[in-house]
Specification:
8 strands; 220 residues; 21% strand; three-stranded antiparallel sheet; Rossmann fold
Length: 220
């Protein structure tokens, strides 16, 4: 049994990697981390599995007057999930939705260009895509990431996280071939409560970890 809280994302990644190592995953695994918080976790997983590391950039689409409240999320150029019930209940206009989506898409493009430094995304066709984040609260971000990755036709897709709510894990099981979660605490309010150190991960750290992982993969 996993002891909570985790010291930090790196420890959570190592513990998650240890569990994944027992699953006899295919040799063609590609680890796909959700920036920013999922990258330190994904880095440890990729290192332990001797697998390449890439990112799936997903952006929350916030309510215009309350950006932390998500009315949806997007990934890539076209994949999106919108909470139509919330949009209707809050009487958010279509123009406000369109403006928020355009802003989110611009940020997704910026981050993809920044994190990959001009390199193309890794080819997933006929590979096993291992989607990693630091945790699942509502699961809305992972939901759009999983659907986006599935559209790229990997041989298999797996969601792996160190901690998640029971509800989120239950909803996401149907979005992938497998879901691995080390801990599902009964009382779950936010991912950060299950880490001693949950400081924000910045773009520079994401770039550094991706480059270090790429160099390790090239030289192995």
């Amino acid at each position: 049994m996993v002891k909570l809280p985790f010291a930090d994302r790196a420890e959570a990644g190592r513990l998650l990697a240890a569990e994944l190592a027992t699953r006899k995953l295919p040799a063609n695994v590609i680890v796909l981390a959700l920036p920013r918080g999922g990258v330190p976790v994904g880095f440890e997983v990729a290192k332990a599995l001797h697998a390449p590391l890439d990112v799936v950039v997903v952006r929350k689409v916030g309510v215009p007057w309350e950006p932390e409240l998500a009315m949806g999320a997007i990934a890539g150029k076209s994949h999106q999930v919108l909470n139509r019930d919330l949009i209707r209940d809050l009487r958010i206009s279509q123009k406000e939705v369109d403006d928020a989506l355009a802003k989110a898409r611009a940020e997704v493009e910026r981050r993809e260009n920044l994190y990959r430094s001009g390199r193309p995304a890794l080819e997933l066709h006929d590979h096993t895509a291992l989607l990693v984040d630091d945790g699942l609260a509502t699961g809305s971000t992972m939901l759009v990431a999983a659907r986006y990755v599935r559209s790229l036709r990997p041989a298999k897709s797996i969601i792996a996280v160190p901690v998640g709510s029971t509800d989120a894990c239950g909803r996401l099981r149907q979005e992938a071939d497998d879901l691995i979660c080390l801990a599902t605490p009964e009382s779950f309010f936010a991912v950060g409560e299950w880490f001693v150190d949950f400081r924000q991960v910045n773009d520079v750290e994401v770039q550094h970890l991706l480059e270090e992982s790429r160099l390790c993969t090239v030289t192995k």
